[in-house]
Description:
Blueprint: E1 2-6, H1 12-21, E2 25-29, H2 33-43, E3 46-47, H3 51-55, E4 60-63, H4 68-76, E5 90-93, H5 99-111, E6 115-118, E7 121-122, H6 124-130, E8 134-138, H7 141-151, E9 157-162, H8 166-194, H9 199-206, H10 214-224, H11 234-251, H12 256-270, H13 282-286
Parallel strand pairs: 1-2, 1-4, 2-3, 4-5, 5-6, 8-9
Antiparallel strand pairs: 7-8
Amino acid sequence: xxxxxxxxxxxxxxxxxxxxxxxxxxxxxxxxxxxxxxxxxxxxxxxxxxxxxxxxxxxxxxxxxxxxxxxxxxxxxxxxxxxxxxxxxxxxxxxxxxxxxxxxxxxxxxxxxxxxxxxxxxxxxxxxxxxxxxxxxxxxxxxxxxxxxxxxxxxxxxxxxxxxxxxxxxxxxxxxxxxxxxxxxxxxxxxxxxxxxxxxxxxxxxxxxxxxxxxxxxxxxxxxxxxxxxxxxxxxxxxxxxxxxxxxxxxxxxxxxxxxxxxxxxxxxxxxxxxxxxxxxxxxxxxxx
Length: 289
């Protein structure tokens, strides 16, 4: 298929690469042109100077940018996606953003005859690079059916969750759960160390029981080793948790644990750890802060 991909960050760069390697004709756009040129050199395809130019002639346009404002700018701004896509095409947004902006973009796209899916992903940079992401999707079933096979190029798990905004709401649940898991894992490892146990041996034992989780198996060893210069950055997690907390205020859901963990992440940021992996929460416990 003729595709476009907009946003070549740590997630978008490999995701677009999987599409090209699968044989699709991919045109990319990135706000910093050298990054787009690097992608073309690595994967082939083409780059374009504006979102509108990148999506012109595409059957499906996909994007992964930073936040709500970025989504609005890339889709509805000057030389934005909707000024280049033709009626009958599909726009898929992989950005983790608010459900409100997803619904706004769904309406804006519909006014142009373009179908829209909000499709945030989970799995982190490693999942994007290995083509092992999970995608939670909001939108119309018929649109989802047309796009599902393309999304499966880099995600073995692609699920339609409901109407527009449902993908973003599901991603919020994902981030709420991760925040609690990482804090609990930090407390457990710190407790094991202070109790005189071998933390690695403890995790090896309990990971075979009911406490097992992806965070424990993937981040436990690096937390023990005090290594955080990789993975999903604290700055990104705080952006996501702000979205969760705002949505909770709107729908009446209580998120006391999430609000507390968000404050802990703010303290990590204040210590200069904004780009550390989210598992760096344990630093606060180790340092008695």
